[in-house]
């Protein structure tokens, strides 16, 4: 079995199986052992953990996960990688299981019930950048038994997830993630840590699921409609942005009344508001409609 994380070993495996990188799957394999160590430390794995890995590639990170967790279940969409994983790089690990499927179609709740008795699992992955946000939001929004999500993502996306109100990176994604998880950027990762090199910088970010949302609101669905409206036209005032929203059909005078009742300035922009302010406004509007 080849121990991966060394570029020479990666090249050997790729040549042995005549593997061709497929752009549509956003494949960039890690080739730096220091980064792999940082991911493992950030994930805070124990020998009791069940880890769900998304996109194992040739198994570089997977080997490290198998060494540090009780069981690893990896979901890989590219069927050409299956023989590499099952016959070579992970053949010696009896705590590894592979699912050849699209992670967005996998019944994660069933996996947790069957393989971990319903106890929370940890997700660890070097995510394909073209589909990072849909995957992360799917994991957070489904109310799944997940303890934490430690993932390699595009640097810009990690910064947006962690951004504070009033900053250039702050937006609807910041609020959606921070409503459900504590964010921690564990490492910045240079381009030369991957094969092939990506066009953008990367970060390892850990999202620790919150037991309870930081704000209790009458309708989280309404609050996030207001948030999306505010950031779809972030340069407009909150009043005009909500008035122009296709998701909401609330008279402008009612919105103005709600903004005032929520204790906000009538000329405020959504980009300077945090979850408490959006929560207050949401509850006021909820009572009006």
Helix content: 40-55%
Mean pLDDT: 95
> What does the largest sheet look like?
7 strands, mixed
Shape type: elongated
Any guess at the CATH architecture of the largest domain? 3-Layer(aba) Sandwich
Query: Terminal Cα separation, in Å?
Result: 63 Å
- The helix tally amounts to 12
Radius of gyration: 21 Å
Output the helix-strand order.
Answer: HEHEHEHEHEHEHHEEEHHHH
CATH top level assignment of the largest domain: Alpha Beta
Class inferred from helices and paired strands: alpha/beta
Instruction: Please tally the β strands and state the result.
Output: 9
Strand order of the largest sheet: 4-3-2-5-6-9-7
CATH homologous superfamily (4th level) name of the largest domain: Vaccinia Virus protein VP39
Count of the domains: 2
Q: Could you tell me the strand content as a percent range? A: 15-25%
- Per the CATH scheme, the topology name of the largest domain is Rossmann fold
Brief digest:
The chain is 40% helix and 18% strand.
Helix and strand arrangement:
Elements: H1 7-16, E1 29-30, H2 33-43, E2 50-54, H3 60-68, E3 71-76, H4 82-89, E4 96-100, H5 108-116, E5 121-126, H6 132-141, E6 146-154, H7 155-162, H8 172-180, E7 181-189, E8 194-195, E9 202-209, H9 220-232, H10 238-243, H11 252-261, H12 275-288
Parallel strand pairs: 2-3, 2-5, 3-4, 5-6
Antiparallel strand pairs: 1-8, 6-9, 7-9
């Amino acid at each position: 079995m080849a121990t991966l994380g060394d570029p020479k070993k990666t090249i050997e495996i790729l040549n042995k199986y005549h593997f061709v990188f497929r752009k549509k799957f956003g494949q960039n394999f890690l080739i730096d052992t220091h980064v792999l160590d940082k991911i493992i430390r950030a994930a805070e794995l124990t020998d009791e953990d069940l880890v769900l890995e998304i996109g194992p590639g040739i198994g570089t990170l997977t080997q490290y996960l198998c060494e540090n967790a009780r069981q690893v279940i990896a979901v890989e969409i590219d069927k050409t990688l299956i023989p590499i994983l099952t016959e070579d790089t992970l053949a010696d690990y009896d705590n590894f299981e592979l699912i050849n499927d699209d992670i967005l179609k996998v019944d994660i709740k069933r996996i947790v019930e069957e393989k971990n008795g319903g106890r929370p699992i940890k997700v660890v992955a070097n995510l394909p950048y073209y589909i990072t946000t849909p995957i992360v939001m799917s994991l957070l929004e489904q109310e799944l038994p997940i303890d934490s999500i430690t993932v390699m993502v595009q640097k810009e996306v990690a910064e947006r997830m962690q951004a504070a109100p009033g900053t250039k990176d702050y937006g609807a994604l910041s609020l959606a993630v921070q409503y459900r998880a504590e964010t921690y950027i564990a490492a910045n990762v240079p381009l030369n840590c991957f094969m092939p090199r990506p066009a953008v910088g990367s970060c390892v970010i850990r999202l620790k699921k919150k037991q309870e949302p930081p704000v209790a609101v009458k309708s989280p669905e309404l609050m996030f409609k207001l948030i999306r409206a505010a950031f779809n036209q972030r340069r407009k005032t909150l009043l005009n942005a909500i008035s122009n929203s296709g998701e909401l059909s609330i008279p402008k005078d009612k919105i103005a009344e709600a903004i005032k009742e929520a204790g906000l300035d009538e000329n405020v922009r959504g980009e300077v508001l945090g979850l408490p302010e959006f929560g207050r406004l949401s509850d006021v509007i909820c009572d009006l409609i």
